[in-house]
Amino acid sequence: MSQPNMYRLNSKEVAGATEEWLAKRGVTKEQIGQLVMLLQKDYFPELTLAECVLNVEAVLSKREVQNAVLTGIQLDMLAEEGKLLPPLQDMIAYDEGLYGCDEVLALSIVNVYGSIGFTNFGYIDKLKPGVLKKLNDKSGGVIHTFLDDIVGAIAAAASSRIAHRKQAEREALAEGIQVRDEE
Amino acid sequence: MSQPNMYRLNSKEVAGATEEWLAKRGVTKEQIGQLVMLLQKDYFPELTLAECVLNVEAVLSKREVQNAVLTGIQLDMLAEEGKLLPPLQDMIAYDEGLYGCDEVLALSIVNVYGSIGFTNFGYIDKLKPGVLKKLNDKSGGVIHTFLDDIVGAIAAAASSRIAHRKQAEREALAEGIQVRDEE
Amino acid sequence: MSQPNMYRLNSKEVAGATEEWLAKRGVTKEQIGQLVMLLQKDYFPELTLAECVLNVEAVLSKREVQNAVLTGIQLDMLAEEGKLLPPLQDMIAYDEGLYGCDEVLALSIVNVYGSIGFTNFGYIDKLKPGVLKKLNDKSGGVIHTFLDDIVGAIAAAASSRIAHRKQAEREALAEGIQVRDEE
Amino acid sequence: MSQPNMYRLNSKEVAGATEEWLAKRGVTKEQIGQLVMLLQKDYFPELTLAECVLNVEAVLSKREVQNAVLTGIQLDMLAEEGKLLPPLQDMIAYDEGLYGCDEVLALSIVNVYGSIGFTNFGYIDKLKPGVLKKLNDKSGGVIHTFLDDIVGAIAAAASSRIAHRKQAEREALAEGIQVRDEE
Question: Residues 6 or more apart from D21 whose CB is under 8 A from it?
Fold first, then answer.
């Protein structure tokens, strides 16, 4: 928690690196937006992909989320390069079922928009639709043990954000109508 | 954390009440065991329902789990009786989507067997198979806003326990064979 | 997650009830602000109580926080009235050390502003300064088993919010200066 | 969660590496035991250091704990070697206050023995007694950004374990006496 004199956190660099690393690892905001769409379209039939992407961007603007994304991708990349010490190297490289630090980091993302996202996270993490299927493909030497959980968590958090926003919109609309009624 | 002189926690009473309240609310260990079976049968084809039930019982023997079960069922029952103050009464009675304390309590159950259970919890909480479908039925004045999440969490925790146990068994077996090889 | 036709969540009512219940249970925003001051004054010597209170209000405006406050206070009040079923009645009435649902709900408040608040929550929950000492006083038949943890969690969350804001201010200022330097 | 044919998790290796890495990073079980003693001696005056160390060992035998220890130490070491990508390198090297992945991993350790450990974790993480002071010393190029939180979390988890055990012992004793009374 201490901050020595010479070091200064630069938030734009952290945000920029998050975006850059996600792109380098093959994940676009549109792909995450499609996961959000899948999770929310039954509740909000009028929802557009553009709206989903905007909510993904809002989630990605949170420091807590950026920290988890960078840490997770870093561990995936080091595992790809074989630079982790055994047995951590093997557990991450083989996406060991009893290794849960990936889920732990992912949940810290979901938590930022509250507990209503837990269900969506688990659901999407199990079914692996869209980009998650690609990330979960173990062939070709590419390792996404952390990233697939993180992407699912971002989609779940964006879904929670939409649920909160839609309620606020509904209430504002209802008040608007009420106000007109009283005129 | 303080314990006045006259009060003494009685663990057997807490454990007994947990079992009794679950039964009164219409949930059997076999039903939870069937959820576990659903979650784990693809990974462990030889798994039996009896084994699943044993793991459910182990989860239910944990104090953390008992506390969450009792607290959740209590809130469900008070909501049924209309004894909660508005607007909490309505949020619990109608299983409000933006109310997440039920998920929060449920996750404290999952956590006891580690983070690998998050996914199973979310998956089952979304799909609502078996007894969860019954619990989630909003007709008839019965309220299970907390209990359906709690039952899903117990099943997810029992699944985590099985995953850890099966690994231990596999290793013990491997060692046994190795030992014989060396003889 | 379902919303029957006649029920409609009213966010203003939830927010209003949160404020009302906190006041009825003897907790003011100023008292929570003083806890925030205690936690943050060493890091930000220029911090004012008014600023702390504003951050407490921002925390209290979050739905996740309101849900936890209402649920916790409700359980405290029902325990005071002796309306909970044994043994839950006793565990809450005597603030049983092995009962942790109060900490679980409190942590869901801390989580909303990210993981950097865990430490402050635990610290303040152990030391019980200011209003927490009063809430933790077990004499007189008043029960605040949930509320003392919840108030500590609100203070910890407000502290996290301040830490994030101050960094943003610092960076905006630095950019402003830099911009001038470049002119 | 998948386990390709050739890879086989070896639990003894994971447990062994956890012990080895903690030792290499300068942390002994006795030092963690002393933190436990500090947290629990007021509640259990008869508690011995040997008993505390036994409880630390029980915590360290849990897979969830081992995973967090190994992952945290790995990140500390890579930061020491300057092998992380900026800006993650800087955030971990300087123990950035707004970086909370260390607290997130630590909390996954605390969770294994339930929510009653949150308070002890936060308290000890703020005060930094004993070995935590040494780990938190930023001079000399050694980085323990993750490890100091992890060690505090192990001590908090061991404290929770003791609290649960002591209650069980108390009840067994009470029953024993009762049994004799009835004879």
Answer: A85, D69, D70, D73
